[in-house]
Amino acid sequence: xxxxxxxxxxxxxxxxxxxxxxxxxxxxxxxxxxxxxxxxxxxxxxxxxxxxxxxxxxxxxxxxxxxxxxxxxxxxxxxxxxxxxxxxxxxxxxxxxxxxxxxxxxxxxxxxxxxxxxxxxxxxxxxxxxxxxxxxxxxxxxxxxxxxxxxxxxxxxxxxxxxxxxxxxxxxxxxxxxxxxxxxxxxxxxxxxxxxxxxxxxxxxxxxxxxxxxxxxxxxxxxxxxxxxxxxxxxxxxxxxxxxxxxxxxxxxxx
Length: 255
What we know:
Elements (H helix, E strand, L loop, with lengths): L5 H8 L6 E5 L5 E2 L5 E8 L2 E7 L3 H16 L14 E8 L2 E10 L8 H13 L4 E9 L6 H18 L4 E6 L4 H8 L2 E2 L4 E3 L4 E9 H11 L19 H14 L1
Parallel strand pairs: 7-8
Antiparallel strand pairs: 1-3, 2-3, 3-4, 4-5, 5-6, 6-7, 8-11, 9-11, 10-11
């Protein structure tokens, strides 16, 4: 269940023109002190952020602390992250501090979290041959006003979903207050009526997005944040196609 702070939605309404660049690896390439993999660094208004794979105990703990802090502000209960081969957690950091995190869940014989309350809809996608994944546990520090950092998390997650794991469809459980954000910023569409999510004791919609649609939007708009025109989505703040290819090639080589 995604209970990100209202500041995330506020960022979605802003149309700041940001000067940014992305460097795959770089001087800090390799593992951090906690052993997590540095995927790349990028600059946003003279501020440098790092995107890392939070695949160590310390990395997951840092992400869990941010999630607990952000979700507690809305009265949600969220379980701590555990090691799971079917979940990929990314973190965005600023000077070593985690300022954002999001997790990609891969459908498997164990299913996905959305099965708990939306099993009928999830099974309908499986019956059509969809290779499913889901987005969960998005949290972003409201003090960090960077659409680029948020977009970097989503774009890196997209690269894992499409290039590394061959997924075709993305699902997400969304609290009603954040529904507009996902519709406007990423083009998610409603797939089910409002239901009660027992994991966080709050209402949720099931929303869907085609991975191919994301790819098309990225090709059309990625890397255009300095001149987005009237585009209101988050896609201009995604990486350019060249940057995407560099990140994907690096992750494929790493296995």
